[in-house]
Design brief:
eight-stranded mixed sheet; 14 helices; about 500 residues; 2 domains; about 30% helix; globular; six-stranded mixed sheet; alpha/beta
Length: about 500
Amino acid sequence: MASRVLIAQFMHETNTFSRLPTTLEDYRRQRLVEGEAIVPHFAGTRNELGGFIDAAEKHGWEPVWGVAANTTPSGRLTREAWEHIRDLILEAARKAGRIDAVCLSLHGAMVSETEDDAEGALLEAVRGVVGPDVPVVATLDLHANATARMARHANALVSYRTYPHIDGYERAVQAAQLVEDALRGHKQPRCLLVQPAMLKGADHGRTTQPGIMRDLLARAEAFEKQPGLHAVSIQVGFTWSDIPWAGPSIAVSHEPGAEATAAHAAEALIAEMWSRRTEFSSSYRSIDEAVAAARSGGDRPLVLAEGTDNPGGGGYNDAPNLLRALLDAGIPGVAVGTILDPGTVQQAMDAGVGARIDVALGGHTDPSLGAPVQATAEVRHLSDGTFRNDGPMNAGVQISLGPTAVLRLGGIDVVTTSTRMHTIDLQVFLSQGIDPHTRNVVVVKSSQHFRAAFEPIAREVMLVDAGGLCSTDASRFQYTRLRRPIWPLDHIDRP
C-alpha cells in the first residue's frame, strides 16, 4: 500500500519593522495554489515543491496536496492570511483520512498578527491532526529564525546550504529521503535545536566566496557522517524581526540515543560561529561612490545592488535616492530593476507606449527614505509582468511583477512594477525588452540573491547603501521583544 504523504508550502520572511502588512491578497497575487494544481505549476522546477514532486514519484508515494503559498517579505501576516492558509493545510490533512508522513516547505521567519512563531504554531497544529508517530519534516530557508517549538513538532528541519538559495530542490529531496527511511523503519529521526545569544552571525550565510559559512557547512556535512546523526542544519537567522528568538541556530536530526552526539555537533558549530562573529565579506558603499564607479564605463555592466531597499528582506522596493543620483549625474546606459509604483504604472498604461508623461516615481511608502523622483518619462514597454525564472535560483518558477511599465528617464530605463519583488533573475529585464548584458550599469534591488544570475555578467558588483529598511546596522532598529542580552547589541562574554 502506497504511503500517503501530505505535501504543502507556506512561506514568508517577515520584517516586523515594515509598515506594510502581509495580506491574503498579497498571496493571491503572487502564489496561492491549491491541491492538485500544485503539480503542473511546479513539476520540473528547481523549487522545493519540484523536489517533493520528484521524490513522491521516486518513492511511490500517494501525495496529498495541500497548498503552495509564498509572497514577498513584508510586515506581519494579517490574522486572515495566516489562518486561511494554515487551515487549507490542516483541512487537506483531515480530509485525507490517513496521513503516513508530512513534507512541508517553510521559511522559518514567519510572524503573524497572532503568532510570533508562526511555523512553530503550524507544525504544532499539523502534529495535532496527524498524531505523534507520523514523520514530519520541513525544509527551511537558511535565514530562518528557528525555534524549539518547531524542533519539538518536527522530526527534521532541513535548511538551504547556499546563499543565493539555489539548492531548494536538493534540500527537499534530502528531506523526502529521510521521510522514506522513517516510513520503512530504517530511521527514527528526532530534532534538536540549539540557539546562541546572537542576533547575527556566519557572515549572514553568504556562500559565494570562501569564509565562515562555507567552513561551518563543511563541518556540518562531516558531522552528518557520524553514527546516529541525519541532517545538521545551520540557520543564520533573520535580523529584521523583533521576536524573542531572532538569530542563528543549529538544528540536528538524530536517532534516539544519539542526543549527546547531536548536542556536541550543535555546540561545536555555535562555538566556531561565536569565535568568528566579526567576520564579514561584504561592505556597503555610498551613493557618491556608486555614481563615481558608474562614470568609468566598461565592456560589461557595473551591477549596483541596492541591498538596503531589498524587497527580499522586507524593503519597500521604492527608495528613490540612487535612481535620482544616477539621473542627476547623467549616467548613460542604465537599467534599474525594479521600482515599485503601481500608480505610475497605471499612468503609463493609460498613456500607452511611446507617450511622454510627467511622473513622481518611487518614494511613496516612507517619505523619510527619500522623496519621489520628479521627471518626464517616455513609456518604452508595457506588460503584465509575468515570466519564468531562468535561474539558477528557482529555475522554471513562474513570477509575476504585476502590471509593469518600462520608463525611460534620461539615459535610464526603469522597470516599474505593481508588485514588490527582489531582483534575482535576468528575466526581470529580458522579459521587459531590456538586455542587461548590453548596459553600462544595472541596478538591482537585492542584497545577495542577485549574485547567482548577475555576477557572471558583471564587470564589478557594488553593494550600495541608498537608504531603506534593510540596513545591516542592527542598532538602527528599536527591539522591544528580542531576548537580551544579545550580541552585537549588548556586551556578552559567551554565546
